[in-house]
Amino acid sequence: LTNTNITNAQDMETIRTLLPAIILVLIALPSLRILYSTDEINNPSFTIKSIGHQWYWTYQYTDYGGLIFNSYMLPPLFLNPGDLRLLEVDNLVVLPVEAPVRVMITSQDVLHSWTIPTLGLKMGAVPGHLNQTTFNAMRLGVYYGQCSEICGANHSFMPIVAELIP
C-alpha cells in the first residue's frame, strides 16, 4: 500500500527549498555590514546626553563644559499663538546641521523612548543602560518628537524639540 514514487522528488524539493535560503543569506550579509557601518560614527563633532525622567527630559552637552538643562512641556497657559499644543517645551535642544551628532540616551526611572520621526530617530531609554544613536541632519529647522513608550500615566507629555542651526 506504500507508493514508492513519493520519494523520487525529494532531492528536487530539498534543492528548491535550500537555494532561495542561500540566496537570501548572500543578499543579507553585505546589507547587514553596510547597515552597521552607517550606524556608527567614530568621530562625532557633537555629543549630547539625553536622560528621561517621569514627564521631562534632561540634556547634557558633554563636549561644552557639561552644560545641563531640563526640558519640560509648556502648559497651555504659556503657549503663544501658532505654538503646537503638547509639543512645545521650555528649553529645546540646539544641534548643528551638516555635522555628525551622537545622542546618548538613558533613563532615570522607567522605560522611555527618545523619538524624533522627521529625523528618523528612535532609541529606547532604559534605566541603567546607555544607548546611542547618531545622525547627520541636512536641513535647518525645528523638529518635534515625543516619548513613544507607555512609561506612565502621562507618558505622552514628554515632548522632544530639537532646533538645527548652522
From TrEMBL:
GO terms for biological process: ATP synthesis coupled electron transport. This is Cytochrome c oxidase subunit 2. Its cofactor is Cu cation. It is a multi-pass membrane protein. Binds a copper A center. The keyword Nucleotidyltransferase does not apply. InterPro entries: CcO_II, CcO_II-like_C, CcO_II_C, Copper_CuA, Cupredoxin, Cyt_c_oxidase_su2_TM_dom, Cyt_c_oxidase_su2_TM_sf. PROSITE patterns: COX2 (PS00078), COX2_CUA (PS50857), COX2_TM (PS50999). The gene is COII. It catalyses: 4 Fe(II)-[cytochrome c] + O2 + 8 H(+)(in) = 4 Fe(III)-[cytochrome c] + 2 H2O + 4 H(+)(out). Residues 1-42 form the Cytochrome oxidase subunit II transmembrane region profile domain. The chain crosses the membrane at residues 18-36. It comes from Trachypithecus francoisi.
